[in-house]
Amino acid sequence: MNITGPARHVARSLFAWHPERVQPAMAMRAATGIAAAMALSMLIDPLPSAALLLGAWSAGITLLVPEVRPRPSLPLLAGLAIGIAVWLGHIAGFHPIATVAVATAWALLMAFVGSLSSAVSSVASVCGVALVLAPGLTVSSTGFVAAGAAVAGGVIQAAAALLPPWSRHRPERHALAASYHELARYSRGLAISLTTPLPTQSLLDTDATLGERRRVPEPLREATSQLYDLRAAIIAVGVARARLQDDDPIAARRTARVLRDTADTLETMAEAVQAQNKIPRDWEEQLAAAIDAGPSDESGVLTTRHTVAGQEIRRLQRSLHRTARFAERVTEGGPATTVVSRRVRVRSRLFEDLETLRANMNWRSPSARHALRAAAIIAITTALSFLLPGTHAYWLPLTAWIVLRADFAATVSRGIERTLGTTAGVLLGSAVSLVVVNHPLWAAVVITVFAIVAYLAMPVSYFVFSLVVAGFVVFQVNLLFYEPFEVGWERGFTTFAGGLLAIGLYWLLPTWQTRRLPDLMADLIEAYRSYAALVLEFQARPAERNEYELREAVDEARLRRSELTAAIDQAAVEPIGGPRPYSTDVQDLEAAMERGIRALIVMEGGVQPGDAAQLAGIDEFAEAIDGAYAALAEWVRTGEFHPAVDLDAALEELDLALGAGSPATRRRRRLLDWESDILVESLDDARLIVSEWNRDSEGDGRPQSRLCHTWGDTGVSRLGAHPCCRGLAMHRAHRAPLPQS
Which Pfam families match (predicted)? Predict the structure, then answer.
């Protein structure tokens, strides 16, 4: 059982500090909303100040959720949901059975709906907190008035979100800059090794960020679409550098210099886009010098590999120039263009959300299991809050609402951070209340300072955020009930107990990502299979290229890879044993498959506008590749061995077919000859890695891969470490080159 992984994860999370994530402008806006709510509560005497401040405070938190656009609709939604929670809590009152029933149903609904996004999850947690605090909020008023006050707090924060300073399309520009930075790191990594992880997540995040907006400047959309063409060009140059490594190390080093200068250029563009400054013009001169010193595609003396490397470098240069033009247009700014009508946009988004919820309505869904687990834990902690002595046992369900997350790693780390931070905050709030409890002006200043620090610390450190929030709440309570030490220690104990209960009760219905890895990996392989079929079909018949189908396949592969990456990160810290595969095993397999995807991306980019001539022999090879992907996906999903497809024979037949053709197709035939080697090697290595998963059951008669003759006890610790993988690569590298005619 893995124990060190969760321990390291909790330690990193507890002491994590991310000052680059601080959002001072939004923090000051949210704090302004708190100040406005306090002023409004003083001016309107019947207005319940506690409910108003709770609505404003909680709605302000939604404006600082990482990677979520701070828009007024979020605090409005939060205020409305909190108002409903306050009204439901008032209806349940202090009756134990009614309170437990309402809390259980509310937890089931909020946890399930919260699976849609991080912003919705944040609002759902706040609604749970409001439900717990509702009986105390309606003591001096009716439930309807208190609910209205909470909604008013959300309205105030929505208005505060519109305050200056304004930065037009700032999230989109920052997302585009993040993609440039990731492509720069990838280009610099390819200058050293071809096994550098393929950048996908930031590109997917950029697409998602732009997809949230109905009106976005056209240069931003064009710059985002250009990212994938640029990535393909970088991959092609990286592959060319790897091929030159053995034949001509000097040319390989010069090609690597082009990749490094490309990385410098992308970082320059990223800084300009993020700060909305003009792009310096010296990047073009520096890159041109590296390109002129690199391999050429215009000399008849150099080898074919030099010629192809020169072609790919020129293609990268053209792609960089297009990227720079789009980036310059982004920095200049411009009017937003309507891409789709608001009515269609709202309908499509609502339809997508409903489809997501419907798909999650099954026992195997992590969202459904999390909702059931949350309902059970909230029911238990709410019942215990009535059984325990004292008047502050409600902090048991209150802490459980804040701690619970869908995965084990987030629940444990968030639970420990929340527990320790709240305990320290209770002591801090109690100590501060001793000094300023009889000074109303100083008390208002302390509340404002607590709010500002909490909003600033939320994206930087959750431990500090929990500390300040607890101090804020305790200080407010102590202003009404002057029992700082008694209340502080009782609340600290119940908070600590609630955090431990939430973590311990997670084992009731655990959602282990490790057990989901085979299915997620198989889904990704199926997505790669669809993409490979389209790419090979387009190579065989370029005139029948369907951009819509290709984009759909690419989007599906991106989503599947994003889901798998998130599950691998969560599984890496789970204290779970049992049969393989584990997270490291799936990482190895995903890395092997990634090399094949690189080859397919290069093949896709090899079909240029104007190519119409068909190529013979590709359909048979595509059929073999499709069968290999299908067999591998089924083997990964079920664990049942499937005979390997004879890819070597299919590759030899493809070589024979590519050996003859017109001069117009020579470039495509040469590219297919090289990239098909990498694709087949990737699939063969993937089968070796899956075979390694089943080494513990060697006595069941399952045959080992036909490529593995020296399996021994070495295993595959990382991609390429096994001697069979290296031998296969050497075998591919020494195959006869394609004829020039």
Answer: FUSC_2 (PF13515)
Helices (H), 437-546: 440-457, 462-480, 484-504, 517-540
**What separation in angstroms does the CA of 61 have from each of 27, 309, 453?**
9, 52, 12
What beta strand segments (E) does 174-301 contain? Answer: 215-216
Q: Name, in order, each residue with C-beta under 8 angstroms of 325's C-beta and a sequence gap of 6 or more.
A: none
Pick from 78, 337, 68, 74: nearest CA to 208? 68
The token pair at 363 is 């026992």
In this predicted model, what pLDDT tens digit does every residue of 327-356 receive, in sequence order?
A: 888 887 655 443 433 333 444 456 666 777
Chain mean position to CA 378: 28
* 175 plus 148 within the same structural domain: no
Q: Is 82:52 a contact under the CB 8 Å cutoff?
A: no
- Supply the pLDDT for residue 99: 92
Q: Are residues 123 and 180 in the same domain?
A: no
- For residues 517 and 422, membership in a common domain is answered with no
Total domain count, the chain: 3
| Residue 40: both structure tokens together | 């409004």
21 domain-assigned = yes
**Which DSSP category does 198 fall into?**
P
Q: Which helix (H) or strand (E) holds 737?
A: none
Tokens of 324: 């720079």
Question: Residue 257 falls within a domain, yes or no?
Answer: yes
SS3 of 161, please? Answer: coil
- Claim to verify: residue 565 and residue 469 sit in the same structural domain: no
Calpha distance 740→364 (Å, rounded)? 55
Cα-flanking dihedrals φ and ψ of residue 337, to 5°?
A: -110, 140
Are 236 and 602 in contact, with CB atoms under 8 Å apart?
A: yes
Q: Indicate the burial class of 189 (C-beta count within 10 angstroms; 0-12, 13-18, 19 or more).
A: middle
Q: Which residues sit opposite 215 in a β-bridge?
A: 338
Residue 66 has pLDDT above 80, yes or no: no
Answer yes or no: do 186 and 285 share one domain.
yes
Task: Say if residue 703's pLDDT is above 70.
Answer: no
- Structural domain boundaries enclosing 385: 4-167+366-508
Would you say 78 and 62 are in contact if contact means Cβ atoms under 8 Å apart?
yes
Q: Is 155 within 8 Å of 28 (Cβ atoms)? A: no
Q: Phi first, then psi: what are they for 162, rounded to 5°?
A: -90, 0
User: Do the domain assignments include residue 296?
Assistant: yes
Dist. CA 490–CA 511, nearest whole Å: 32
In terms of domains, do 74 and 113 share one? Answer: yes
Mark whether 138 and 284 lie in a shared domain.
Answer: no
Exposure of 197 in the CB half-sphere (CA atoms within 13 A): 12
* Residue 437 DSSP one-character state: T
Q: Note whether 88 and 150 are same-domain residues.
A: yes
- pLDDT tens digit string along 147-181? 999 999 999 999 988 887 666 677 778 888 888 99
- CA gap 466, 529 in Å, rounded: 46
pTM given for the model? 0.66
User: Do 603 and 532 form a contact (C-beta atoms < 8 A)?
Assistant: no
Whether the CB-CB separation of 570 and 551 falls below 8 Å is answered with no
Which helix (H) or strand (E) is 170 found in, with range? helix 170-190
